[in-house]
Amino acid sequence: MPVKFEPRSPSATAFLGYGSCALAGTFWGTGFFWGKIALTELSVGHMVLYRFFFACLGLLPMLRTPRFSKKDWSLLLIAALLGIPLQFLIQFYGLSLTTVSHGALMVWTMPVILAVGATIFTHERLDWKGWLALAGSTCGVTLITLSGTRHPQAAHGPSFTGDMLIVFSLIIALGWVLLNRHLMHRHSPMTVTIYTIFTGTAMLILWIFPVDGLPPIHGLSVKVWLACAAGGMLCTSAATFLWNWGIHHVPASRAGVFLNIEPALGSILGVELLGDKLGPAAWLGGALILAAAIVLTTTGKFEAEMVHE
To answer: Is 105 part of a structural domain of the chain?
Structure first.
C-alpha cells in the first residue's frame, strides 16, 4: 500500500519560510566582511564580478530550461538589473568609502524599507506589533554597531557619502525583492534565483569589461580568492535562493525582520576586524533583535496577511 505524505500545515510552512529567511540573513551578514577582504586587492567592479562568477558556478548544476512568458522575461530582466549591477555596484562602492561596521549599520534601514514597500505595493498588512518589532530590532542593530569604537590604526573612517550610497542601494533592492516575489507566483524560487543571477551577471560583464577592463587573475592572494568564492556561493547563490524560497511562503513585510541579522552579524564581524570589543550595549542589542524576531513571527494571522493574486 503506497505511503501517503500529508501536506505541511500552514504553521509548519511558515516556520520553514521564516527559518529560510533567517539563514539567508545570516549568510548575507558575512557579505561585507568578505567584500572588504576582496577590496584590498580588487576594484569594486572586479570584486563584484568575481563574486557573481562564483555564484553562477554554484548554481550551474541546477540550471534548467525555463518556461517564462515574454512578460515574465521582461520582469526578470528588470529585477536582475535592479538586484545585481545597480544594487551591488552602488552598495560596494559605498562600502569602499566607509567602514564595515558603519556599512552594516546602514543595512538596518532595509526591513523598514521592505515593510513600507510591501504595504504600499502588495497591500500586505503589518499591525502595530509588527511595526513595534521592526522598531525594536533596528534599535538593537544600532546598539550593536554603536557599541564599538574604531581602531586607531584603521585606514579609513566612516563616510557620509558611503553610508548614503549603501542606503540608496537598499531602496533599489526593494524593487528586486518585490519583482522576484511576483515572479514566484508562477515559477519556482530556484528558477527565479538562477535566471536572475545569470542574467544579472551577464549585465555586469557588459558594464565592467568596457569600464574596468578584464579582471586580474595572477597575483591575487589565496584569501582574496576565498573571499570571492564565499561571497558568491554563500552570500549570493545560497542566500538568494533561501530568501526567495522564504518570501514565497511568508509575508515579505514580516520576513523583513530577518534582514536585521545581516547588519547585526556584519557589525560584529566589522568590530572584530577593526580590533574592537563588544560591550553590554551590544548584548542588549542582540536581545532586542531576538525578541523582535519572536514577536514578529509568532503574532498575527499568517493566512490573512498573504497576498492572493
So the answer is: yes
